[in-house]
Amino acid sequence: MNLLKTLIKNKVSNRTILKLKYMIGKTGLPKTLRIDITAFCNAKCPFCPRVAMPAERSTGRMSIENFTSIIEEAKNFGIKTLKLYITSEPLLHPDFAKFVEVAVKNEINVQISTNLSVLQHRLNDLRKVSKLQLSIEGWDKESYEKYRFPLKFERAKNNFEFLTNDPLLKKIHKEIHLPVTKITNLEKFFTLWGNVDAIRIDFMQPYNYFDKFENKFISNYPIKLQNEIYELHETENKTCYDPFDEIVVGYDGKIHLCCLDFHAELPLGNISDGFKKVLNNYKRKSIQSEFLTGKVDTCGSCSQFMQASQDQKNKVKISIDEAWKKIKPNAKIIFYENTWESNG
Ligand code: SF4
User: Fold this and answer.
1) DSSP class of 230
2) Rounded to an integer, what distance in angstroms lies between the CA atom of residue 201 and that of residue 220?
3) Which of 82, 139, 166, 173 has the most other CB atoms within 10 Å of its CB?
4) The whole model's pTM is what?
5) Burial of residue 26 (number of CB atoms within 10 Å: 0-12, 13-18, 19+)
6) What whole-number percentage of the chain has pLDDT above 90?
């Protein structure tokens, strides 16, 4: 482990570190499971990969019976963390609380991402969740309702106040993932939403989709936001741990490659085949091999490899620092390592 830390410190390439971790078994045996219990979302965010998602994958729900059998196998497999979100809004499943109950009974901690749009009494269903990611990008009514169309600012704000003040709900670790654009007003954002444990900041990215003719992921700038998203360039440093460290299951049991694979069109199998078969799936193995050899064909144009220039990063960091010093929110600011440390 010390050797690994030294290598990281000495900036040995990310691929070399991935290969070493793979060789010594530190990656490749997933500890995290992601599941979409519903395929539905009530928002049409202009930057979300749902804009390019095939319509047939946008409706449908998982049954509690299928979920229970996945969770029981996950427990035996040593999975400790369940993320109940991939492409959708999990609180829209009417049995959400029962799903959480099943996972907690099997000693698996549950994390969710929510857009805060449900009626307030439904927030009580979150009591047994261990970590909440709140999806908010806007700093006032107009910007909130543009990014989270057609959700309403007032409901999100009221739900936020309830979550951060209710004696039981306020204990849950809460984070906001903020993808900044050229027009994000950080001072207003920290004033409105700063009362959480952490705000994790990166740049708003183009959305990802799988092009089945090209047989690879492609990323596209959303037309409605193209004037405000920072210009990003493709990094040469292409390493991703998702196909090694997570099992990602759609509402119908189909395996997704990762949380950015909204189409689920790759032949990665079905969770009903069992965890071992899913992990040994030939396509999963071939994508892992692409990352290990550095010949990243399938994922080479993924949006997560789009980076801002060093100059842009420095300027945005200064603005964040100035806004933080002025507003002093409770939230710790976290910079995504992938976004801020790599120079591409
Ligand atoms: S590179 Fe992108 S598409 Fe490929 S596994 Fe990672 S997040 Fe998913």
Assistant:
1) P
2) 21
3) 82
4) 0.92
5) middle
6) 82
Return the residue whose CA atom lies nearest to atom 1 of ligand 1.
Answer: 299
pLDDT 10s digits, 137-193: 999 999 999 999 999 999 999 999 999 999 999 999 999 999 999 999 999 999 999
Distance 111 CA to ligand 1 centre (A): 20
Extract long-range pairs of 238-243: CB within 8 Å, 24+ residues apart: 238/15, 238/291, 238/294, 238/296, 238/299, 238/300, 238/305, 239/14, 239/15, 239/17, 239/18, 239/291, 240/291, 240/299, 240/302, 240/304, 241/18, 241/27, 243/284, 243/287, 243/288, 243/291
Average pLDDT, the chain: 93
Which whole-number Å values give the CA distances from 312 to 180, 189, 199, 237, 280, in the listed order? 12, 20, 19, 18, 41
Q: How far apart are alpha carbons 27 and 241 in whole angstroms?
A: 8
Are 207 and 49 a contacting pair, CB within 8 Å? Answer: yes
CA-241 nearest atom, ligand 1? 6
- The answer to whether 197 and 173 have CB atoms below 8 angstroms apart is yes
- Find residue 256's DSSP bridge partners: 248
| Ligand 1 surroundings by CB, under 6 angstroms | 217, 240, 242-243, 257-258, 260-261, 299, 302, 304
Alpha carbons 344 and 336: distance in angstroms, whole number:
14
Residues 132, 135, 138, CA angle at the centre, nearest 5°? 140
CA distance 299 to 291: 9
Helix (H) or strand (E) holding 114: strand 109-114
Q: What is the 240 CA–ligand 1 centroid distance (Å)?
A: 6
163-178 pLDDT tens trace: 999 999 999 999 999 9
